[in-house]
């Protein structure tokens, strides 16, 4: 089964110059826990709700500053035509629960999460969760 068959299509994304506050508001309104950060329609980072809490709120960071302070610059991507097993392996290797899905032009087209994998293959998902949690 291909990633395109299980991914959440379309993505909520933010620009690298958006403020921390705007990103947090968007996460709340869209009910998402992670958002890719784009520059010129290319992913240059990824930010989670936890990143905002740990890197910004807990440190007393001005929430009107750009999101680049809270984002992780490593973005893990999978091609929409790759198998869900390949996506699972990448999640395991990088110890992440969400991966950006890109098309042949490397433009973001969706997200695939552990939850998406769970709905298709419980054994694959259980193994992935187990490996992500390993220290």
Could you please describe the fold and organization of this structure?
- With 135 residues, the chain is an alpha/beta fold.
- It has one domain (3-133): CBS-domain (Roll).
- The protein contains five helices and seven strands.
- The chain has helices at residues 20-30, 49-57, 84-94, 114-120, 122-133; strands at 8-9, 14-15, 34-39, 42-48, 77-79, 98-102, 108-113.
- It is globular and about 45 Å long.
By DSSP (H or I, 4+ residues per run), the number of helices equals 5
Instruction: Supply the number of structural domains.
Output: 1
Q: Give the radius of gyration.
A: 15 Å
Sheet/helix structural class: alpha/beta
- How many DSSP-defined strands? 7
Largest sheet: 4 strands, mixed
Low-confidence stretches: none
The amount of helix comes to 25-40%
Average pLDDT for all residues = 87
Question: What is the second-level CATH architecture?
Answer: Roll
CATH class: Alpha Beta
Secondary-structure element pattern, one letter each: EEHEEHEHEEHH
**What is the CATH homology-level superfamily?**
CBS-domain
CATH topology: CBS-domain
Major beta sheet, strand line-up = 1-7-6-5
* Shape annotation: globular
> Beta fraction of the residues?
15-25%
The span between the termini is 29 Å
């Amino acid at each position: 089964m291909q990633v395109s068959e299980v991914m959440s299509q379309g993505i909520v994304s933010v620009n690298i110059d958006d403020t921390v506050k705007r990103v947090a508001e968007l996460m709340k309104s869209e009910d998402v826990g992670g958002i890719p950060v784009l520059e010129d329609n290319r992913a240059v980072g990824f930010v989670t709700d936890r990143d905002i809490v740990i890197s910004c709120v807990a440190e007393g960071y001005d929430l009107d500053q750009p999101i680049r302070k809270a984002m992780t610059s490593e973005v893990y991507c999978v091609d929409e035509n790759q198998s869900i097993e390949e996506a699972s392996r990448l999640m395991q290797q990088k110890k992440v629960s969400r991966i950006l899905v890109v098309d042949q032009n490397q433009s973001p087209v969706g997200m695939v999460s552990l939850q998406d994998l769970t709905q298709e293959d419980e054994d694959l998902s259980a193994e992935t969760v187990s490996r992500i949690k390993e220290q």
